Write a sequence for this structure.
């Protein structure tokens, strides 16, 4: 029997109603049985990897408290940090735990890498977990569509070299240091009187062994874990940059979760970030002893010497960032004020 205009409308309406109902049921089912993909570039071993420990803690807590499933993708299995951030933005990755590369997506993040800004880890934690970190997270959410669930740490970076002990910027003159190919690091090393060399990570051991460079800079866990003591005789605990880890979630995915799931995810991320900090601190403290046992001569600059490092390195980096950030340069002063306030409590 041919359909009349009326029966056609009824049929279309029923079809649309059924489609909407099916979509609603599918969305509800997806929200209740959703899988979160958590990716980072560190090894999975929680005893040696801050991000590895954070990921495993996050997975265990979320799965214990909700019906969500968390899949872990460690060791750069889904790409480098840039690819992980891009994946989180397009939703193919739910959560990315990253560090320095985030400044390429939210430029204000770069201010946390201003050398000799954080005098200690507790001050850094106070700043990042307080009003400054909250405001930075909100700013970056608007810039990137990624919600910062919590902060962890990559830890303090230090200089090593094969020529002489370094007690002051004058001791760095004439030395070549491998650094990341990031303008901020190039400005910092030049400000300290040394010559920066941008060398790919995979080429660093050969560059150190053959004398292409005299030294490099990294956290203690990286220095020990990569056996740099085989090529480097001197370690200076100058704490020139404190690396921040960002635990980021695609905001559309986050908003698709129920309120209970969102709360559980946020709690788990805070515990994960704190766990990562603890693992990093333990490995750094233990690593100093291990490096000494391997024969490295370790120098701890005095307060006066640290001030000399700060006065040499900060101005060129701040000048570079002021020009580079434009309106976002206000974050330099906001961070400085937050650090000053937190330092008064430690």
């Amino acid at each position: 029997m041919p359909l009349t205009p009326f029966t056609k409308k009824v049929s279309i309406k029923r079809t649309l109603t059924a489609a909407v109902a099916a979509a609603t049921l599918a969305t509800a089912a997806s929200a209740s049985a959703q899988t979160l993909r958590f990716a980072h570039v560190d090894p999975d071993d929680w005893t040696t990897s801050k991000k590895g420990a954070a990921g495993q803690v996050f997975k265990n807590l979320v799965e214990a408290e909700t019906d969500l499933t968390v899949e872990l993708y460690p060791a750069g299995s889904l790409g480098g940090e840039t690819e992980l951030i891009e994946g989180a933005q397009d939703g193919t990755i739910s959560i990315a735990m990253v560090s320095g590369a985030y400044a390429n997506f939210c430029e204000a993040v770069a201010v946390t890498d201003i050398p000799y800004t954080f005098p200690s880890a507790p001050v850094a934690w106070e700043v990042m977990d307080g009003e400054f970190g909250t405001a930075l997270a909100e700013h970056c959410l608007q810039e990137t569509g990624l919600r910062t669930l919590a902060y962890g740490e990559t830890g303090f970076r230090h200089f090593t070299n094969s020529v002489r002990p370094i007690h002051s910027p004058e001791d760095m003159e004439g030395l070549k240091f491998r650094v990341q190919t990031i303008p901020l690091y190039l400005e910092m090393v030049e400000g300290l009187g040394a010559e920066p060399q941008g060398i790919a990570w995979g080429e660093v051991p050969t560059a150190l062994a053959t004398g292409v460079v005299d030294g490099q800079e990294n956290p203690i866990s990286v220095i020990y874990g990569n056996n740099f003591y085989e090529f480097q005789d001197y370690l200076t605990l100058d704490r020139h940059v404190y690396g921040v880890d960002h635990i980021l979630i695609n905001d559309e995915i986050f908003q698709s979760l129920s309120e209970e799931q969102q709360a559980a995810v946020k709690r788990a991320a805070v515990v994960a970030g704190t766990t990562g900090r603890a693992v990093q601190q333990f490995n750094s403290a233990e690593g100093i002893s291990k490096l000494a046992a391997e024969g490295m001569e370790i120098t701890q600059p005095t307060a006066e010497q640290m001030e000399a490092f700060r006065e040499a390195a900060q101005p060129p980096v701040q000048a570079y960032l002021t020009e580079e950030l434009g309106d976002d340069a206000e974050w330099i002063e906001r961070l400085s004020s937050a650090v000053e306030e937190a330092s008064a409590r430690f």
User: Anything to note?
Assistant: Residues 1-32 have pLDDT under 50 and may be disordered. The chain has twelve helices and nine strands.
